[in-house]
Every structure is written in structure tokens, then in C-alpha cells.
Amino acid sequence: MAHPTDWDVEQYRNEHEPPEHWRLCRAFILAHKSDYPEARLVCLAQCFANMEFLGCRYPDETMQLVRELSAGIADDYRREKQKKIQRTFVRASDAAEAKVARKRISYDTDGGPSAKSYRLCDDKPVGNSAAFILVEYGDVSVDANPVNRLMCSSGFCKVPVKFDMVGDVCECRVGGDHVGTGRRPEGTSNSAKGSGAKTAKTLAAAEALATLQGQCYTIRLKTKILAEEDVARGELVAAEGEAAQKVADGVGGKLLAMMGWTGGGLGKQKQGITEPVRLEEVVGRQGLGSEKRTVTREFKDKTELRLRAYASKFQERDLSFSNEFSNEERKEIHSIAHRFGLKSKSYGKGEERFLVVSHKFNPYHLLQYLLATGGQTDKYELIPPKTEQSSREDSSTAEKVSSVICLT
């Protein structure tokens, strides 16, 4: 059965979608435009994009159908990316299981050579350090301190980092693997929390970083916030007089107009109210006579529609809300964003405080996405594992840091 083909494919392109992603989605839709209804075909194309770029999983029937329909569409794309950098597929279920069991993750490399970040072809037994991902936040207080950087990277990829002080030696373990050692300088305190122990911990972290940089990928955050424009309060809150205009254009307004009403309040002196009575909610301990802004149902509905649209499509760009919103309105935005599985955070103080909503990234899905896009996006930069020579240089740098710390 043939279906209508006179609808515009371009209307389904997201403004933040990378060109390469849209090219494949568009090719998928055009290849089957006459075979499926418009709504179902667009949904299948989105499933295809999520499976291809994010490694998402769906019911077996859906995945089998998408594989059949996408046969030959993504082949050229995959070959082009393999020339740039080897792609590694990581299943979220495998990562979650490995995290609970604290064992090595089994990765699907699509039949090709495995990525060095996971050491899949290494014959040596490895632990969870094989799945470690380093992160550079662009914050001097984090990146310049080896211990802070390791702990922040640990929180990002959910692989534990542990420092054990045994005598004068501090051992750094990542996911159970020994990756760095630091020794307490002679003549320092033997206390577990003394300056000598802190120095040993810093040395162990510096050596661990040098080791991991030769084995693992590093994700560099170019900018904390990547948003084209702020969402203004006027987009979510009705302007003054807008509600009255809705009444005037409705059935009640038309009936009044037939009786000679020309606008304004009712009564001989037009002393009646011009704005409809609104249902307002009491927030927190707000009492009668408070002039604080209340969160209306209209605000909640418009915010939910805006965040639903943002959450429905994968994108690395953030959704920024201007500093015009009140504390209660920002609290409501946080709550709605949480319901849609989005991440939200407020920045600034006082009247300059604003809110940013962004997608939550599984670290391995983000790594796969960066591998698929060539390692460079507007927000992230993927740094591949360094060569053995670079690792040796980093080790010598760590030794220099060690000597400097000992001297100080």
C-alpha cells in the first residue's frame, strides 16, 4: 500500500542536530517515504539514529525492523569514520552489570580491532581501569591537581579510585588495578593525614594520570554552557492583558459585544475587573499579601511543553533560562526537568542567577558519540590515548613533579 509522499522531510530536522546525523536520518526517511505513514516513518528514523549514534536498544521486533530498513544506508558513513578513528560499542547494560559485579566489561567492537582505551586486545587480565575515562573540565582548581582530576574523572565514569597508604608508600588503584605509586619524602611526618602522606598521595595520582593517559581516552570540556539563546520569561508567562484578550475573543466576549460591550470593565462606570480571576498556588510559607511571583498552571504547562520537546531529541547544546525567573519558577523548572530525566543547574547570585538544563550523558555513550563524530564537537573534544613515547615523556614529567614536591 502506497502512502502519501507530498510532505516535507526538512520539517523534522532539529536545529541543533549535527549535519552528519541529519544526512543519515534524511536518507532513511526518503528511502521508505512511500512504504510507511509519515508519523511511523519519522519514529523509525529516530530509532535508527539513536541506535547508530548512541547505541540505544529497543524491543527485538523494532530493532530487527530498523536493521532491515537501514541496510546499506549507513555503510558509507561507517567506512568514513573507521578511517579516522576506530569505533567501540559499549552496551549500557554491560556497563551497569560490571559496575555492580566489579568485573571487567565485555565490549562489542563490531568485529574490528578494539580501542586502546578499553585494552580489549590485551592478553593481560585487567580490572575496571580498562573502562576509565579521563576528563578535563577547564577548571584550574581541578585540572592542575592530579588527585582532584582523578576523583572528578572517577565520578564521571563511575569507576572507583582508591588511595592506600602502606608504610611510606601510597598506592593508587583504579577499579582494582594498580596504576600509580608515591613515596612519602624522608623526614616528613608519619601521620596518615600529615604533609608527607599528602605528598605521597599527590605523587601516586600524578603517576596514575601519566599511566592512564597512555591507555585511556580523555574528554575535554571546551565550555560549561553551550546555548544559542536564553529562554525569556515572556515565552512561558502570559503578558499583561493577554488573558483578557482571550476572553474578548471567546464566546462570552462575542455575546457581550452583541449587547453593546466595547471592552473594559463591566458596570455603569466600567468599574468591573478586566483580568479574569486566576487560580494561584501558595508556595512554601508564603502568606497573604505577599508580592512574590506565584507559579501558575499556564507557566507549568508551557515549561513542560518546552522541556518535553528538548528531551525528545538528543543534542549536546544546553537549554538556558534567563535571569528573569523568580526562585519559585526556577524551582518548578528544576522539578519538571528532573521528571524528564534532564540535568539542571543554577548559576550566578541574586538578580544575575540563571538556570541551565542539559541532557544527561552515559559516559560510554558520550565516548561513542564523539568517536562517531570524529572527536570534535562544539562542546567536547576527544583526546585519544597517547603513544608509548608520549607516556614515557609524561612519566618523566611526573618524576620532575616528584622531585619538585620533595624539595618543597
TrEMBL record:
InterPro entries in alphabetical order: G_patch_dom (IPR000467), R3H_dom (IPR001374), R3H_dom_sf (IPR036867), XTBD (IPR021859)
SUPFAM superfamilies: R3H domain
Superkingdom of source: Eukaryota
TM region(s), chain numbering: none
SMART domains: G_patch, R3H
Region feature Disordered, mapped onto this chain: 385-408
Pfam families documented for this protein: G-patch, R3H, XTBD
Any GO molecular function: nucleic acid binding
Domain R3H: 297-361
Residues covered by the XRN2-binding (XTBD) domain: 9-93
Domain G-patch: 248-293
Name assigned to this protein: NF-kappa-B-repressing factor
